[in-house]
């Protein structure tokens, strides 16, 4: 029986590398807990390959 990973604390990093399989990009991500974070916001990253969350300042880079 495999264990389910616990959700990550929100905003634990300042920079994240994501892949196309992670799209659409939302901050905080579905893998993060939401109770101690800001509202979920979707970030447009497809064209530029980079996005910054207006709430927490986390930076996302799209790895192609």
Characteristic terms for this protein:
64 residues, two-stranded antiparallel ribbon, three-stranded mixed sheet, 5 strands, mainly beta
What does this structure look like?
- 0% of the residues lie in helices and 23% in strands.
- With 64 residues, the protein is mostly beta strands.
- The strands form two sheets. The chain has a three-stranded mixed β-sheet, with no helix packed on it. A two-stranded antiparallel ribbon has the order 2-3.
- β4 and β5 form a beta hairpin.
- It is globular, with a radius of gyration of 12 Å.
- The chain starts with 14 loop residues before the first strand and ends with a strand.
In summary, what is this structure?
This protein is globular.
Outline the secondary-structure elements.
Elements: E1 15-18, E2 26-27, E3 41-42, E4 50-52, E5 59-62
Parallel strand pairs: 1-5
Antiparallel strand pairs: 2-3, 4-5
Q: What do the pLDDT scores average to? A: 84
Spatial sequence of strands, sheet with the most strands: 1-5-4
Distance between the termini: 33 Å
Radius of gyration over alpha carbons? 12 Å
Estimate percent helicity: under 10%
Q: Low-confidence segments, ≥5 residues, pLDDT <50?
A: none
Number of DSSP-assigned strands: 5
């Amino acid at each position: 029986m495999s264990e389910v990973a616990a959700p990550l604390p929100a905003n634990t990093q300042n920079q994240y590398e994501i892949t196309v399989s992670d799209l659409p990009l939302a901050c905080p991500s579905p893998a993060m807990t939401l109770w101690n974070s800001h509202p979920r916001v979707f970030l447009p990253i497809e064209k530029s390959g980079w996005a910054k969350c207006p709430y927490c300042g986390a930076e996302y880079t799209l790895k192609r």
